[in-house]
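tool_log.txt
---
The assistant was asked to compare two proteins side by side. It first ran the structure predictor on the initial sequence, then on the second. Raw inputs and outputs are pasted verbatim so the downstream comparison step can read them without reformatting.
(1)
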Amino acid sequence: ELLMEAARDAGATAQVDDLTRVLSAARHLEKLIEEHVVREKLAALLAAAPVDETRESDDPAIKETPVGHYQYDGPLGRVLVVDDNRGNREILERMLLVDGHHPAVAHDGQRALEMLAAGGYDLVLLDIVMQGLDGRAVLQRIKADPAIAHIPVIMISALEEMEVVVECIQNGAEGYLSKPFNQTFLRARIGASLERKALRDAERRHLWTIQRTQDRLASELNDASAYVRS
């Protein structure tokens, strides 16, 4: 897709046609792999795969179904995908739709902040390297805003420098996965993040209820005290 865009910009029509056929063949191959390989082989591959350090051992987000392949069975939510690469956005959006989530996409950091300010999101998948406002700056602004600071953020990037990972975690990121990402581990991370957010939201509602009850009792006690004094 990137080569096609470059060829269009250069006016290379013949190359665009060739690349279009290559892309069509690649998508057909991807469909064949999903239909004839993934369902039969994924269980064995996962069983032999090394454990990802970012995944909780008791995470229920991935489980085996009776038909012998793996499906997402974690909590669902509204997920915002922030990436300036259209291909990456489409891949993540498709995966989220297949799993039953409600995805939304933002092509840059500023647009992501505007969408988050409108409310209603449960999780953010945030690319680190973007033009303009990059992922690290977006993460800092999210965590500095009390209205949206509670939304978990998973950083996604091709970068592998440990200092970037440490910086993101220190600034409040929920986790970090590198591109090209392992979709199984990404699904597990999404499920774990949404589950923790649901628990935190329940705790916040519980604390709000307690505070309301305490305020009501204090008001009633003040009224009773005033009545006794009178």
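(2)
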Amino acid sequence: MAVPARAPDDAIALSFRAPRGLRSVRFRSDLVKRGEPPEFRRRGRSLTWELELPRPVGVDRVEYLLELVRTDGTAELVTDPANPLLAPGPFGDKSVLELPGYEPPVWLEEEAEAGSVEPLLLRSRLLRAEVEGLIWASAGADEGEPLPLLVVHDGPEYAEFSALTRMLDSAIAQLELPPMRAALLQPVRRDETYSAAKRYADALATDIVPALPSARSRVGMGASLGALAMLHAHRVHPELFEGLFLQSGSFFRRELDGYERGFPRFERIARFVGGVRRTREWPQPVPVTMTCGLGEENLGNNRAMRDVLAAQGYPVELVEQRDAHNWVSWRDVLD
């Protein structure tokens, strides 16, 4: 088993007592994406494998998996069986080390009346597909009353893995937000539609948003590709949203993101981002809040996009948090 060991504040130490038949044990984390992954060392002829790493810069949490490589060459990714702290996600659980300095948001412990949740199913003519999701409304909201509306890409995942609706319940109970609704949209062919696709932006403006509950105002929200798609939809249809909340946006650029060139729609994204960067003025700016982790490879892209939008007249703020590209990171900075 792997045992998170006590270590100095500037280091991470793990030990792993493995079954027989292993050739190596590797540490897999998004914080160590380039080059060969760090390998545990076997202690003499024992079954114990050990690893010590410098504390990653800019983060107070580390999500990771263990890669077990057997003597026959086969490999398996597993969570740390001795570490009960897990971060769930759409691609499976990961083990978590919470380092000195990490504190979860206080609203996770607050009690608040939960809002209502109803299923959403819309037919999009442009996408030739059904768009699924959820409609959340704050507690006590009148069914027919127009309220502020948050339109959320990857919405059900935001609710499940980032506790978005729980945060909204708490913020409304504390009078930090007004009564409101959220449309939690499930993606349709995510890598295609969330990658600066005009067909999707048009579908959002003509098929999806008009079919949502009537709203006094609308804010678009998304993370990663979902953030990119929200900015793209705003630039194609500037009247669609009165504000944007963009987390860890995938604002790929050819000069910085060679490691992302394997993504099928890299060039289309790079063309869109390049077009935004070359624009001197924008006639319909809206308030934008951005967030990005200090441990993310795309931090530079988010800083650059903040500067570009500010120069075009957007009221824009970038909040940088001590974490990486994951759902808990996005959760921890929601408020």
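---
observation on (2): The two ends are 37 Å apart (CA to CA). Residues 1-7 have pLDDT under 50 and may be disordered.
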